[in-house]
C-alpha cells in the first residue's frame, strides 16, 4: 500500500501514528557513538539529511526555518545580549545564527556528542561557517552539569536546542534544569527551548508542561512562538521563551527591522506573527498562564 | 527500510520526493466516480480521512486549519459581504465556515462531483451542519462554466477551494478563470484560492503564478496568507487573495475581534500574522508585486 521502496528514509512518529518520508540517493555515513546512532543521507530534494536514532534532525533545505527561529526572536527580546549559551545544537546552525549579531561577545555551545558537530562540519559545512569565529566556544559533555557549574548570572540567554524529550535530552525538559538555567542567567536573562509540535494531544503536550515548569522554576514570563518545519512531525513546530523579568511579548522591533544581516525566514513581522496563538493552543496552554495566550 | 506495513495510508508527493503517511484502522469506503476515485479511511489519530486519487483531501482532526483560513480572512476583508460562491469545496467545510457569518445572505457551492458532498455528509457530518441552512445552495457540475454563466457583478466573494492543479482542477489555476471570476464579482469583490505549499521550488511555484495571473486578469491587489496544514505536503500551506479594488492587507480587524462565533485557529491576530511573509517567499513572488510582499 505504501509504494515506498528502499530508496526512502521514513521516520515513524508512533505516538501520533503518522510518518514522514524523504526519497534518498545515498546513505553517506552512519556511526554509533556512546550516545546514539547518527545517519547522514543525501536526499533527492531536501539536500543532506541528518537522522539520530531514526529521527530527522535537519535537512539542508529547510533547517533555516528552525535555526533562525531558535536564535533571532530571543536575541531581539533581550535588551542588550552579550553572552549566549546553547545547550545541544551540535549541528552548529543555531550558533551560526547567534553569531550574526555583531554585539554578541561570547557564545558557548554545550553539546553532549562531539560527533554531531564533527559530522555537521563534514556534511553541513554551510551551517558551520561561524565555528572558527573567535567568539565561539565549544564544550562537549553533559549540558545539564555544565549549566550547574556556570557562574551564577553569567549568561544573558540560554538556548536549549535539543532532540526530542527522550533519551539524552530527557533531562532538558524538567523544572530542575530550568531552575539551573535560571541561576546561570542574569537578572534580565531569557531561556528558549524547542517545544515540539503544537498539534499534539493535550494530555501529552510538551508545550503546556514547559510553561508550567518554567513558571514553577521562577521565570515571571513565558510565551510560545510557532513556525513551520516540514521535516518534523506534523510540519508545524514551536519554541517557548521564558523571561526571568523580561516579557517576551515585547521585542526590540526597530532593531529587528534594521538587522545588519540577511535571513530567509525571520523578520520583525514574522517574529510578531509567530506570537499569534490560535484558540485551541491557548486553551491547551491553560488560563493560568495569561502571558502564554494572546495577552 | 520504511517499516510501514499495510496498515498505513501513504501519499507520495513525487515532485518534491516526500511522502506523508497515516496509520489506518479501516478502509471505510471507496468508489470511482466519472471524475475521480474517492477513498474514505478511519485513521488511528487523525479521525476520518478522505483521499481523492490517492491524495489526502482532509482529515477530521486538522481540517479546521484549512477551512477556517479559506473562509474567514476573505470574509473579514470585504467591507460588507452578502453573496459568496465556493468553487469546489465539495466536503462542505468551507461552506459551513462561511455560513457562521450572520450577515451572509446567499452562498453557492459549485462542486463538480456530487459524490464528494454525499460522502462528506456520511463520513464527515461535522462539516455538513450548514448544508440545510436556507442560505446554502448547491450546484453540481462544471464550476468554470457555472462562473461564466453568473450574472456580472453578482458575487461579493468567490472562494476557490479546489484539489491540486492537475486533473479536474487544472482549469481553476488559469488567468482565464480568474477573469471569469472578475466578471462575476462586484466592484469591491474578492477572490481567494488555495495555492499549495510555499516550500516549493521557485520554478514550479503556484503562488508566484497565481499572483501574476490574478494581476493579469485585472485584480489591483494580491496577497498570500500562510497557515499550517499537517496532512498536506510539507505541512505548510497558503491561500492567495485577489481584490478587484479592495487591498487584502486591510481587513475589518475590529469585526474579526468581535466575531459572534467560535473558531479553533482563526482570530484577528492569526489573520494579521498569516500575512507576514518570510523573505524567501517575498523573493519567490517577485518584486513586481509589491503588495504580495511585506508592503
TrEMBL record, chains A, B:
Residue span, PABS domain: 6-244
Active-site residues per Swiss-Prot or TrEMBL entry: 161
Record: residues binding S-methyl-5'-thioadenosine: 36, 111, 142-143, 168
Subunit structure as annotated in this protein's UniProt entry: Homodimer or homotetramer.
Function according to Swiss-Prot or TrEMBL: Catalyzes the irreversible transfer of a propylamine group from the amino donor S-adenosylmethioninamine (decarboxy-AdoMet) to putrescine (1,4-diaminobutane) to yield spermidine.
Entry's family note: Belongs to the spermidine/spermine synthase family.
Protein name per UniProt: Polyamine aminopropyltransferase
Native source species: Halospina denitrificans
Gene that encodes it: speE
Amino acid at each position: 500500500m505504501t509504494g515506498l521502496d528502499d530508496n526512502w528514509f521514513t521516520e515513524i512518529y508512533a505516538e501520533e501514528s503518522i510518518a514522514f518520508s524523504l526519497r534518498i540517493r545515498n546513505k553517506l555515513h552512519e556511526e554509533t557513538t556512546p550516545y546514539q546512532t547518527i545517519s547522514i543521507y543525501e536526499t533527492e530534494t531536501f539536500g543532506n539529511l541528518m537522522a539520530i536514532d531514526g529521527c530527522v534532525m535537519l535537512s539542508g533545505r529547510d533547517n533555516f526555518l528552525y535555526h533562525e527561529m531558535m536564535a533571532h526572536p530571543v536575541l531581539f527580546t533581550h535588551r542588550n545580549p552579550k553572552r549566549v549559551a546553547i545547550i545541544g545544537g551540535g549541528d552548529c546552525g543555531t550558533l551560526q545564527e547567534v553569531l550574526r549579531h555583531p554585539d554578541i561577545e561570547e557564545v558557548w555551545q554545550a553539546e553532549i556528542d562531539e560527533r554531531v558537530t564533527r559530522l555537521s562540519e563534514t556534511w553541513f559545512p554551510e551551517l558551520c561557517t561561524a565555528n572558527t569565529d573567535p567568539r565561539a566556544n565549544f564544550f562537549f559533555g553533559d549540558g545539564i552539569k555544565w549549566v550547574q557549574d556556570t557562574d551564577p548570572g553569567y549568561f544573558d540567554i540560554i538556548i536549549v536546542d535539543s532532540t526530542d524529550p527522550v533519551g539524552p535530552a530527557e533531562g532538558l525538559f524538567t523544572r530542575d534544569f530550568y531552575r539551573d538555567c535560571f541561576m546561570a542567567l542574569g537578572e534580565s536573562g531569557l531561556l528558549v527551548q524547542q517545544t515540539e509540535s503544537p498539534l499534539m494531544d493535550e494530555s501529552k503536550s510538551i508545550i503546556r508542561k514547559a510553561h508550567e515548569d518554567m513558571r514553577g522554576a521562577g521565570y515571571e514570563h513565558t510565551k510560545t512562538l510557532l513556525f513551520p518545519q516540514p521535516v518534523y512531525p506534523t510540519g508545524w513546530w514551536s519554541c517557548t521563551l521564558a523571561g526571568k523579568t523580561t516579557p517576551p511579548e515585547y521585542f526590540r522591533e526597530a532593531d529587528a527591522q534594521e538587522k545588519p544581516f540577511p535571513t530567509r525566514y525571520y523578520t520583525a513581522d514574522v517574529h510578531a506573527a509567530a506570537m499569534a496563538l490560535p484558540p485551541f493552543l491557548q486553551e491547551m496552554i491553560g488560563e493560568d498562564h495569561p502571558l502564554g495566550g494572546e495577552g
